[in-house]
UniProtKB/TrEMBL annotation:
Signal peptide extent: none
Top-level taxon of origin: Bacteria
Domain Orn/DAP/Arg decarboxylase 2 N-terminal: 60-297
Protein name: Diaminopimelate decarboxylase
InterPro entries: Ala_racemase/Decarboxylase_C, DAP_deCOOHase_LysA, De-COase2_CS, De-COase2_N, De-COase2_pyr-phos_BS, Orn/DAP/Arg_de-COase, PLP-binding_barrel
Pathway recorded for this protein: Amino-acid biosynthesis; L-lysine biosynthesis via DAP pathway; L-lysine from DL-2,6-diaminopimelate: step 1/1
Biological source species: Bacteriovorax antarcticus
Cofactor(s) the record lists: pyridoxal 5'-phosphate
Keywords from the named record: Amino-acid biosynthesis, Decarboxylase, Lyase, Lysine biosynthesis, Pyridoxal phosphate
Catalytic activity: meso-2,6-diaminopimelate + H(+) = L-lysine + CO2
Residues that span the membrane, as ranges: none
Amino acid sequence: MKNILPSPLQYKNNTLYFAGIRLDTIARNKRTPFYLYSKKTLRHYYEYFSKSAAKNGIVSPLVCYALKANSNKDVLSTLKTMGSGADVVSVGELKKALKAGIDPQKIVFSGVAKTEDEIRFALKCGKKGIYSFNVESIEELDMINSIAKKLKTRARVAFRLNPRVNAKTHKHISTGNKTHKFGLLKEDILEAMDVAALWTNTNLVGLSIHIGSQLTELNATIKAIEELSKLALKLETPLEFLDVGGGLGIDYTAEERSKLASIDTYMKAVSDAFEKYYYSKTDHCPRIVFEPGRIIVGKMGVLVSRVVRTKISDSNHFTIIDAGMNDLIRPALYEAYHEVLPAQTSKQMIKTDIVGPICETSDCFGTGRKLPKLNAGDLVVIDNVGAYGQTMASTYNERQIATEYFI
């Protein structure tokens, strides 16, 4: 697979198309802004991810799609029909996954603040409860054990290891260092294994890691798998699975496009790391679980907006659009880059700042971008919004949550 990942957007005769349909045709009679998703692109990435795992010799791979990236019901239903499981971090996400028909025995529950009600609900899903709780503290394990005892059942749990690695990503989405709130240190896990009172109604079935999001290089991933393998080999309990989390990135910028690890490169690195650090040292062969999010849905979606007006302030040119940071918070929160594309191209370009209607200076989608001179009512598209667009949206400034359309 090439590093340049497929997109549903394409220009034909200077006109922008989405999934083979003219954007202005799609937008006709639709209120802007709105999110627009391509089912073909979604299917492409899930199929490529799962097939690449098998092709690279991953043992019995289970793909648990991370709902936090995009929890649209049609997205979930499509992934369910393709065999996907789910990674959830709240009872709300769990209920959405179940409503989409995803088997509880393909669902892992992550997150540092699982409540009693959430744990109880997860234990009562289906006949056996969920596939596993990814436990992030000893206190959480104690709570799960206690609730399972009251329900006269047994809970399947996996320790989430904090492998103490620094992932090269934005500091707000790095999760694998000891200063982060996520996971347990190796020594704490080993100590908990000897506390009999924690295991009266729990079964340790796996170990997991997740070191961050928008990962574009794999050194930290390989190091985390090494630490995961070392811990697994120390445990006397035979494990059903080892969970490598998610986080594989997509290309938002030309720089990322040039250095981005492809899905195949990622799968080979995972396979080689487990062979080197785990399988070569034991006859035990647990399955590998993945929790991809952005890599599955990021490229399938865009945010469609219209120009409200333009404004000149001395040497500054502003293109004011009707989409705001409440619709896509990544640029304001992470200083993230997203391409802004006009529905019609032109050879005559100007430099302009693309800004939204929110009463915050940070409500800006790009500064000094080269775009045609746009007029009120013209359509623009903010690209790569399939992940962490709608799921992070808000009603700030009492604005409505934008509608999602699935092509």
